[in-house]
Amino acid sequence: MTVPVGTVASRRAFLAAAGAGIVTGVTGCRSVLLGDSSSGASAAAGSVEEWVRSRRAPYFIAHRGEGDVYPEHTMPSYRAAVDAGARALEVSTSSSKDDVLVCMHDLTLDRTTNTSGPVKARSWAELQDVAVVQPQLGPRWTTPPLTRIPSLEEVLEAFAGKTVLCLEAKVDIDYPLLVELVEKRGLQKSVVFKFFHMSSRIADAKAAGYPVFVYLGSDDASEEAIRDAASGLDRTTDYLVLPTTTLDGADLPDAAVRTAVGTGVSTWVYPVHRRSEAKRYQDLGAEGIITSSLEYVRETSPLATSDQWASKAIAPGEMTRHPDRAENGPSWTSQDELTLARDGAQRFLTLGQLAPVANAQGRYSISFEARWNKLPTDVAAGGFTLAFGHVDDAYYEHRLGAGDGYHAICRADGSLSIFSHTRGSADGFQLSGTSQAPIRTGQWMSMRLEVTPSTLVWSRLGTSDVASVVATDARFRGGYLHIGRHSADGSLSLRRLRVDPV
């Protein structure tokens, strides 16, 4: 059974209507630090030739639209990317039982919709009753009106002439349908055809004069496979595309990227969720950044000063370790309340929508409320953490050793501590700490961190057992933040998080 699908306004329109509390939490946009020479689409943006002529590295390709923030491969997601200035849009297609091309990454409906089964088993009329539902994006996108699967025809109608389209038929047998639709609309000069590196259709597209985007998967991006894929590509028109992670979730090795760049074919990487990832691959020589969060990664999203959880939707830059995985997402347990409850691992959120903190080198405070709905099994070690002082948005959790900064801890036994941590070391160094009475479930706690150029103050406020710890340390004053549950179990709710000057 499927949920009725309706039209949906853009996320910007939704947030604008969500109330003054959200609007006042935004301070405006920062300058573009990375990106194409043009900040937005123009009438010529739909031409591959014009895009190539005017872009400069690194340039950006929108991945599944704005797939970290909107339901992937839907009209709201594509529209948000184009509105954010996407000059190239990646679109994957599958086909219905009656050979209508629809925008969908998978060949089944299981992962991203409210039903299951092969896409090919349903007619286009039947697919129009299917909703795209991705819980990790927030309840805004899982309650009516829901977004639906668009046809490729709809996407071409809406965006042809506004952006370059990187089009893929997920199965080679659908490639002729794709070409037919492109040529029927006269879009031959506006598309790059996208293929898995083992596709038999690469030669067909090149023989017809189309530029191609050839990608490798996380399980086969060896240096040998990279060189082999590049050997059939034109250095002036084609693109060699690498995954950002290996099959086990590790970052793609530097050597693989350097091998691709060394072939002389323009190298792109996918999917990029973080600004720190974009910088890493840019530094290694990648020219194209395929990102699921274009506005955030390019640093053109508004800088917020408070959470936007009342919108019931993930904000640009607000992400878990793997933003595209439903099992990692937070849940909304009240109108403005976010909960981290899934057991089995630490659960942290990168607060990219608040970063970099405007006054990171000076004085600022971070305040929020926290409540344990269920305490961690190990109350002496388990608790929640606010990590701060980082120079970039590389993911943080305890003992990962991924960056320099601080972490302020409130353990379930009531103790407060401030630690420093450094890149390459799993162990933190305690700067200050104090013991307090154990925390009770169901009770909201008001927490506050105050940062000055030389001191750090971490406090629990507003109860009979008020406590503070102070550390004197001036080493790390980056503007990126993380918050989360550092224990492998327990249910933690958060609300009313904000950043203020002091």
Task: Considering the chains and any ligands shown, give keywords for the structure.
alpha/beta; Glycerophosphodiester phosphodiesterase; GP_PDE_dom; phosphoric diester hydrolase activity; 502 residues; Jelly Rolls; TIM Barrel; TAT_signal; 30% strand; 2 domains; 17% helix
Secondary structure: elements and pairs:
Blueprint: H1 11-17, H2 20-23, E1 26-29, H3 48-54, E2 59-63, H4 75-83, E3 88-95, E4 101-103, H5 124-127, E5 131-132, E6 147-148, H6 152-159, E7 164-169, H7 175-184, E8 191-196, H8 202-207, E9 212-215, H9 223-230, E10 239-243, H10 254-262, E11 266-272, H11 275-283, E12 288-291, H12 294-297, E13 302-304, E14 318-319, E15 331-334, E16 337-340, E17 347-351, E18 364-374, E19 383-389, E20 405-411, E21 416-421, E22 429-434, E23 445-451, E24 455-461, E25 467-472, E26 478-485, E27 491-501
Parallel strand pairs: 2-3, 2-12, 3-7, 7-8, 8-9, 9-10, 10-11, 11-12
Antiparallel strand pairs: 1-13, 3-4, 5-6, 14-17, 15-16, 16-27, 17-26, 18-23, 18-27, 19-20, 19-26, 20-21, 21-22, 23-24, 24-25
What would you say this structure looks like, in words?
By secondary structure, the protein is an alpha/beta fold. The chain has two domains: 11-297, Phosphatidylinositol (PI) phosphodiesterase (TIM Barrel), CATH 3.20.20.190; 330-501, Jelly Rolls. Helix content is 17%, strand content 30%. It contains twelve helices and 27 strands. It has an eight-stranded parallel β-barrel, surrounded by five helices. A seven-stranded antiparallel beta sheet has the order 14-17-26-19-20-21-22, with no helix packed on it. The chain has a seven-stranded antiparallel beta sheet with strand order 15-16-27-18-23-24-25, with no helix packed on it. β20 and β21 (416-421) form a beta hairpin. α9 (223-230) runs parallel beside α10 (254-262). The longest helix has 10 residues, at 175-184. Residues 1-34 and 38-43 have low confidence and may be disordered.
